[in-house]
Write a sequence for this structure.
C-alpha cells in the first residue's frame, strides 16, 4: 500500500476515524474516550445550515448570528427588528421560540456498508443498483427509527465507498436567548466577508427545550475566559456542508465549465431580485435582509472557488493526482479490471449533463416559500401513497417528522416579497430556457409571468398553516381538487420536475454512486483509508493550530482586538457597512479595548462549519468558527496548506464575554457560561 | 502633434512646467503666483536623501524620522541612543547640531538647453560631445556661483533633452529639535514597510540655523490642525530620487536581466554584513541600525520594482509604447532620419554593458566610510590639479564646498564596524570577480582580505578630522607620500576605478546623453512636452487626492487611527517589531485614539519624496509623505493608475500634533506649528 503524503492539519474527520495518530505525532495530544464522547454529544447541527455547541447543562447553545439570522428574521416584525436591534432575554420567560428550527445531536453511528453494498445483485445495471440500495437503506432507517425513536439516516461517504447509519437526537423547541445587532455581527458587511483581520461579534445564544423545560445537556463545552494562545492546538467540531475533493477530473471540469457558471447565474438572479425588492423601503429591506446576506455570501464564496478551479496550475494538480491513482492501480491487475472503467463511465455520464443542466437548475419554484410549500404538498401527496422504500428520500418514514415540522412552520410569509422573487425567478427561467421549454410552458401557458404570479400569490391560502395542514392530511384527493392557484401552478409543473429528477437519477446520480463506489475502493486499495471523506453536512472534527500568517510582504496576527474594530469604523468615518451600533459608542469607555475579538486557526473547515465550537485540549470552548479567509476559498476542491495562508476565522471566547458584560449588560448570561 | 492619453494624477513635475491645466480641469484649482512661489521656497531637499518643508518662520522644518535617521545615529552614543529613545529639545539651547547634514532650497532656475546643446560641435563623436557639454556646463555653473554665491548645478532632464541651471540656497547648520522613538516612527519594521493600513509616526523636526541664529524663513507651510478630508486634492512637494520611465526597451531589459539582479547581490551582501555585525551586541546593533534599515528598505523596494519588470504584461506595454513612438516618428521623415538611429545606438551600447557590470559594481570601497574618505582624498588630489571644466563633476568649483563639508564631518567612525563591512565587501568582490581581477589584485595583492582590512582600519588616522584636513590641503604630494594604510589601499585601487569610470563614460554615459537627447527630441516632436521628466533628486510637484482603495475583495480606508496602532501591537502581543515605546502605554488614556495617524493619497511619488510636505489648496501642511504601498512599487518604470490601488502614504498632521501634545509633552513645539 503506497501512502501519499497528506498535508498538515488536512481533513474533516468522521468520529469513526479520528486523526488520533496525527494528533499524537504532531501535537502530542491523546484524547480520552470521555473527551471524544463529550465533544460528539455537545456538538450540534442546526438544520438551517450551520453548527453550534452546548455551553451549559441547561440546554444553552452557542452559534453564529448569521446561522440564526433566518430565525431572527422570522421572529422580527416591522416594529421590532431583532436582526437590526439585537435581543437579550434577561429571564427564561423572555426567551423567544424559533418558529421552525430543528437541531440534531449525533448520538450513535454504525457502519452499514456491507449491508448496503451487498444488497446490489450481481449484474444489476446502475439504475437497478440504485433502486436496490435505496430499498435496503429505507429498511435500515425504518428499523432503527422503530427501535430507537431517533432520527435515523443512512449516509453515503467516499462517493458511495462507505455507508453509515447516523442516529440523531433532535430538538425542535429552540428559543432565542441573545443576539447582537447584525451591524456588529457582520461589521464590514460583504466587503469584509472572507477577509482577515476582522472584527465581527458573530454570535448568538439559543436554548434547547424539551417538554417545555430547558433541556438537560450534561455534555457541554466549558467556556474559556481567556481563549486560545498563539500556536495552541485546537479542534473545531461541526457539520461542514459539502466539499468536492474526491471528484474525478471529468466531474471537476463539469463544475468549472458549466456547473459553477450556472450556479452563479442562479444566485445572481436571485440576489438581484432581492436587492430590487429591498430598495422599495425599510420594511422590504428588513424582509429580504437575511436571504440577501446569504446569497451575497454564496456568490463571494463561489467566485473564490471558481477562481481556484480556473487556475490551470491547480487543475493540473488534480489531473496529476488522478493519474497517480490510476498508475498505482495499474500495478494491481485484479483491482484495476473492476475499478478502472469507473472513470470512463463518469466522464461519459457527465458529457450528457451540460445539455440538461439549465433545465435542472431552473425548473423549480425554490426562491418562493409559497411555491416551495405548494410543490412539497403536491409531491408529498404522490409519494406517500408508495411503499416506504420506493419514495423520494425526503419522504421516507424516518424523515417525515422533520419534513412536517418545516412545512407547518408558523413563520410569517410576506406576499409582496413572494411576488417579487417568484416573478423574477420565472422571468429568468423563461429567458434562459425559452418560451417552448416544458417547465416554462407548464408554468405560464400563454399568460405573462407577472399575471400568473400575481394571482397565485394574492389568492393562495397557503400562508395559513391550518390550510397547509388540511391539504397535507387531505392526501392526493385534496390536492387534485384544490383550486388554490399556487397549488394549481405546482400541479402543472410537478410532472416536468419529476421527469427531470428521474433523468438525473438515472443518468447521473446512479453513475455517481456506482462509479464513485469503485473509485473509492480503488483509492482504499492504493492508499488505505488515509484521507477523510468529502463533507456532507454531518458531524466532523477538524483540527489545527491558532496561528497568524504572511500576506504579501507582511505578517497577519493570529488575533484582532476591540481597538481594531474602532480603528476600522473611524477610518471609514463610520460609513456603512463600517458603522457601529449606538451602544458601542456609548460603552466604549467601559470596554477593555485590548480584549481579543476574532482569531484565525489552521483547521480544515468549510460552509456549514459556521458556529462550530473551537475547543482546546481540555474541551473548553475558546472560540466560535464563523468564516474563512480569502486564501481558503477554493478549499472546496482541495486542501490548502497552512503555509499558503489558508485560515478559518473564529470569534474569540474572551471577546464574547467582554461584549456580554460591558456592552449588553448580560451578566447573567456570562455567569451561565463561566459560573462567574 | 498626437497626444497620448496620460493618466490621472501622473507625473513629478518641474516648477517650470507645472500641470496647471490638469489642476484646473480635474480639481478646479488655480494656484496664484504667490502660492507657487511659497511652495517652491518652503520646500527642502535634505542631502542625506529626502525631502522636507519649513513649518515656521524661524527655520523649523519637518521631515521623516527615517530621513533624519543617519544624523540621529551620528548624534547618538552608546549611552544615549537617540534612534531608540527619541529626542526633544525643550529650548533652542538644547537643539543638537547635526554633524554633516546639508539642506537645499531651490531659489531659481533657468533653461540653459540651448547653450549646452549648441556647445557640441557638428560632427563630434559621442565622447567629444560629452566633453564639450561638460566644459560649457562647468562654465555656466562657475559663472552663476561667482555671480550669486548660490550652489549652482546644471541638471539634465528628459535624458538630455533639456538642461537647466538650478540655483540652491544651502544651509549646513541644521539642528535636531524633535525625533520620536524609531519604534513608533517605524512601527511594524521591515514587515510593514510599503504596507497600508499603517501606523507610523515617521516624523522629525529640525531647525536651520544661519550665523548661529535660527534662519529666517518667511516662506513656510502653515500646519493644519485637522489634516485632509476624504477625497481632498493635495500636492506633495519634494525631491524624488530617480525614476526610469523614459528608458528605452534595451535599457529596461538591461535593468531587468543584469542591473537589478546585480544591485540585489550588492545590497544583500551589504545587509548580511551589517546584520552579522549587529548580532555581536546591543552597541554594535545600534551602530549598524540606520544602514541596515536603509538596505532592507532598498531591497524590499528593489524586489517590488523587479517583480514589475519581470511581469511580461508590463514589459509588453513598454515595448508597445516604444513602438508607438517610433511609428509616429516614421510619419515625420526629417525628424526620423536624425532621431531614429538613437534606439539602435543605445541597444548597441547596452549590449556591451553586462560583461563589465560586475566590475563596475564591485570595484570600490563604498560600504566603508574610511575607504570612501581615502578614495575621495586620493581622487581629489588628482582632480584639483585640472582646470575646472575637465574635472570629475563632483570636484567642480561649484560643488567643492559641499564636498568638503561631507568629507570633514565630525561624525564618529566605528573601527569595528568598518572592519566588518569592508572585509565582507572585499570578500564578496573577490568571490564575484575572481582573484585575477585587476581591482581585487590591486586591493589585496597576495594577502588575505582580512589581513589587508585589519591593518588598514586599525592603523589609519583618517578617523581624525584634522588629519583628513591636512591631507586635503597637502595636495597630491601629501597623498603620494602618505604611509597611512587606508590611503595606500585607496592609491592601489584608484587607477583601476578610473579606468572603469572612463570606460563607462565613453561607452555608456556619453551614448545615454547623445541618444537620450535624440529620443527626447523625437518624443517632444510627437507628443510635445506633455509628460514630466524622470526624477533626478531635484524639486518636483506631484498631486492627487486623498482616497482609499479596493484590495482583494474589500476596501482599504484612506486613513488609520491610533486605535489601529494599539490593535496591531496588541494583536501581536507586542512582539517586536510590533512593540510600543513605553510612553505609548503610559499615555494611552490621554490620547484621543480616534485621531488619524496615517493616510494615503494618489500622487505620483518615489524614494526621495520621503518627508515631502503634503499640502492642500491653501498651502497648509496636512501630512508628511513617508512611504508608498506595495501596489506602487514598480512605479520606477511606469506610472501606476489610481484605480490599481497605487498610493503614497503620509503621516497625518493631526496625528503628529496629538502625539506632540499628549505623548511627548511638546506643547511648545506644537505651539510653534499652530500658534496654539
Amino acid at each position: 500500500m503506497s501512502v501519499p503524503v497528506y498535508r498538515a492539519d488536512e481533513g474533516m474527520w468522521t468520529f469513526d476515524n479520528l486523526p488520533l495518530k496525527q494528533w499524537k505525532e504532531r501535537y502530542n495530544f491523546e484524547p480520552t474516550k470521555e473527551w471524544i464522547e463529550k465533544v460528539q454529544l455537545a456538538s450540534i447541527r442546526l438544520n438551517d445550515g450551520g453548527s453550534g455547541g452546548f455551553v451549559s447543562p441547561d440546554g444553552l447553545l452557542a452559534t453564529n448570528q448569521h446561522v440564526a439570522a433566518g430565525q431572527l428574521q422570522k421572529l422580527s416584525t416591522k416594529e421590532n427588528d431583532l436582526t437590526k436591534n439585537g435581543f437579550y432575554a434577561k429571564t427564561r420567560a423572555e426567551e423567544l421560540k424559533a418558529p421552525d428550527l430543528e437541531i440534531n445531536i449525533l448520538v450513535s453511528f454504525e457502519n452499514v456498508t456491507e449491508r448496503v453494498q451487498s444488497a446490489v445483485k450481481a449484474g444489476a445495471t446502475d439504475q437497478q443498483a440504485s433502486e436496490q440500495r435505496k430499498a435496503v437503506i429505507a429498511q435500515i432507517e425504518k428499523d432503527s427509527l422503530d427501535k430507537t425513536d431517533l432520527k435515523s439516516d443512512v449516509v453515503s461517504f467516499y462517493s458511495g465507498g462507505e455507508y453509515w447509519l447516523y442516529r440523531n437526537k433532535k430538538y425542535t423547541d429552540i428559543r432565542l436567548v441573545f443576539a447582537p445587532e447584525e451591524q456588529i455581527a457582520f461589521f464590514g458587511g460583504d466587503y469584509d466577508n472572507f477577509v482577515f483581520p476582522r472584527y465581527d461579534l458573530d454570535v448568538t445564544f439559543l436554548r434547547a427545550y424539551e417538554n417545555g423545560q430547558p433541556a438537560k445537556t450534561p455534555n457541554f463545552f466549558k467556556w474559556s475566559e481567556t481563549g486560545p494562545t498563539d500556536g495552541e492546538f485546537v479542534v473545531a467540531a461541526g457539520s461542514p456542508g459539502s466539499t468536492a475533493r474526491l471528484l474525478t477530473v471529468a466531474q471537476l471540469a463539469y463544475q468549472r465549465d458549466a456547473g459553477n457558471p450556472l450556479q452563479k447565474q442562479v444566485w445572481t438572479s436571485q440576489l438581484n431580485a432581492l436587492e430590487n425588492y429591498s430598495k422599495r423601503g425599510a420594511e422590504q429591506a428588513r424582509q429580504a435582509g437575511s436571504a440577501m446576506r446569504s446569497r451575497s455570501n454564496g456568490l463571494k464564496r463561489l467566485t473564490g472557488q471558481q477562481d481556484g478551479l480556473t487556475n490551470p496550475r491547480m487543475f493540473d494538480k488534480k489531473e496529476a493526482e488522478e493519474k497517480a491513482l490510476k498508475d498505482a492501480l495499474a500495478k494491481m491487475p485484479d483491482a484495476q479490471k473492476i475499478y478502472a472503467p469507473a472513470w470512463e463511465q463518469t466522464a461519459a455520464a457527465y458529457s450528457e449533463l451540460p445539455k440538461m443542466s439549465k433545465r435542472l437548475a431552473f425548473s423549480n419554484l425554490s426562491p418562493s416559500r409559497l411555491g416551495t410549500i405548494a410543490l412539497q404538498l403536491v409531491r408529498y401527496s404522490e409519494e406517500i401513497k408508495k411503499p416506504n422504500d420506493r419514495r423520494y428520500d425526503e419522504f421516507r418514514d424516518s424523515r417525515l417528522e422533520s419534513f412536517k415540522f418545516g412545512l407547518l412552520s408558523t413563520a410569517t410569509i410576506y406576499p409582496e416579497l413572494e411576488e417579487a422573487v417568484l416573478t423574477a425567478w420565472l422571468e429568468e427561467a423563461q429567458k434562459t430556457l425559452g418560451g417552448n421549454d416544458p417547465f416554462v410552458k407548464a408554468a405560464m401557458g400563454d399568460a405573462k409571468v407577472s399575471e400568473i404570479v400575481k394571482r397565485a400569490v394574492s389568492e393562495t391560502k397557503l400562508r395559513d398553516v391550518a390550510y397547509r395542514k388540511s391539504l397535507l392530511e387531505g392526501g392526493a384527493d385534496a390536492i387534485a381538487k384544490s383550486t388554490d392557484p399556487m397549488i394549481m401552478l405546482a400541479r402543472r409543473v410537478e410532472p416536468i420536475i419529476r421527469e427531470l429528477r428521474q433523468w438525473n437519477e438515472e443518468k447521473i446520480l446512479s453513475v455517481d454512486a456506482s462509479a464513485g463506489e469503485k473509485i473509492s475502493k480503488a483509492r482504499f486499495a492504493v492508499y488505505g483509508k488515509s484521507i477523510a471523506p468529502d463533507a456532507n453536512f454531518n458531524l466532523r472534527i477538524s483540527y489545527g493550530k491558532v496561528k497568524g500568517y504572511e500576506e504579501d510582504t507582511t505578517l497577519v496576527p493570529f488575533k484582532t482586538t476591540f481597538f481594531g474594530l474602532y480603528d476600522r469604523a473611524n477610518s471609514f468615518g463610520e460609513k456603512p457597512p463600517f458603522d457601529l451600533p449606538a451602544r458601542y459608542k456609548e460603552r466604549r469607555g467601559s470596554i477593555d479595548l485590548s480584549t481579543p475579538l476574532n482569531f484565525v486557526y489552521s483547521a480544515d473547515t468549510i460552509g456549514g462549519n459556521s458556529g462550530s465550537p473551537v475547543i482546546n485540549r481540555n474541551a473548553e470552548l475558546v472560540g466560535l468558527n464563523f468564516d474563512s479567509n480569502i486564501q481558503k476559498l477554493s478549499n472546496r476542491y482541495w486542501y490548502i496548506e497552512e503555509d499558503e495562508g489558508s485560515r478559518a476565522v473564529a470569534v474569540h471566547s474572551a471577546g464574547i464575554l467582554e461584549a456580554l458584560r460591558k456592552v449588553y449588560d448580560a451578566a447573567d448570561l456570562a455567569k451561565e457560561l463561566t459560573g462567574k
The first helix of chain B runs from residue 20 to 27. Residues 1-5 of chain B have pLDDT under 50 and may be disordered. The first strand of chain B starts at residue 43 and ends at 46.
